[in-house]
Amino acid sequence: QKEVEQNSGPLSVPEGAIASLNCTYSDRGSQSFFWYRQYSGKSPELIMFIYSNGDKEDGRFTAQLNKASQYVSLLIRDSQPSDSATYLCAVNGGTGGGNKLTFGTGTQLKVEL
Amino acid sequence: NAGVTQTPKFQVLKTGQSMTLQCAQDMNHNSMYWYRQDPGMGLRLIYYSASEGTTDKGEVPNGYNVSRLNKREFSLRLESAAPSQTSVYFCASSGRDRGGETQYFGPGTRLLVL
C-alpha cells in the first residue's frame, strides 16, 4: 500500500516568513514528487515537481527531496496572505505506478497579517 | 485553450438514480483520470485511462464505470448512486510539460446524493 503522509495543520506563519511544508512517502521506488496548491472550493493547481535529490527553486518556492529518508518538503519564502491554502504532496511512479499519482491529505497553511 | 473542463458543476441525486459526469481536455494529453475528494481522505483515484482505448481501476472503483470516448473525453458514470458517493469529483489529464509528466485538474463536480 503506497502512502503519502502530511501533517494536516493548520500551519500558521506570519506574513513575510518562510513556510515549511513536509511530506513523507512509503514506496522507495517512487520516482517523481509533486506539490499542488488547493484553495478552498477550487481544484488543485500544480506548483512544482522534483525528481532528483536536492533542492529545486522556482520563484518563492523551493522543493527539497531526500530519497534516502523518503522525505520531500516545500519551502515558501516571503509568505503572503494569498499563499493561504491547502498544499498537497503527490508521488508518482514506483511499483506499478505508471503515471498515477498518490496524494497526501494535505497541509493547511494560514499566512497571518 | 480551456485546459480540462467538467460538467456539471453541481448535481443533486436521489439514492438509486444514475448520472454521467463529463470531462474533456484540449491539451492533447494521452492520460486522463477521475478522482474523488472527501474531507480528511484526500484525493483518491477512481479510474484512469493511460491512452485512448484503455481504462484501468484505481483505488476506489466500486460503484463507478468509465468510458474513454476519444482522446479528448473521459466520462464517469454512477449507475445507482448511493449517499457514500457524495463527494467532489475531479477529472485530470497528464502529459509532458515543464520537463516532466504533469497532471492538470478540471474545476470539479460537487455531487450530493440524498
Would you kindly provide a written description of the structure presented here, covering whatever features stand out?
With 113 residues, chain A is mainly beta. Helices cover 0% and strands 56% of the residues of chain A. Chain A is built from no helices and eleven strands. Chain A has strands at 4-5, 11-14, 19-25, 30-38, 45-50, 54-58, 61-66, 71-76, 85-93, 101-103, 107-112. In chain A, the strands form two sheets. In chain A, strands 2, 4, 5, 9, 10 and 11 form a six-stranded mixed beta sheet that branches. Chain A is globular. The N and C termini of chain A lie far apart (41 Å). The model of chain A has no long low-confidence stretch (mean pLDDT 92). With 114 residues, chain B is mostly beta strands. Chain B has no helices and eleven strands. In chain B, strands 2, 4, 5, 6, 9, 10 and 11 form a seven-stranded mixed beta sheet that branches. In chain B, strand 9 (87-97) and strand 10 form a beta hairpin. Chain B is globular, with a radius of gyration of 13 Å. The N and C termini of chain B lie far apart (36 Å). At the A-B interface, strand 5, strand 9 and strand 10 of A face strand 5 and strand 10 of B.
Which structural traits does this protein have?
heterodimer, A: mainly beta, five-stranded antiparallel β-sheet, 11 strands, B: 114 residues, mainly beta, seven-stranded mixed β-sheet
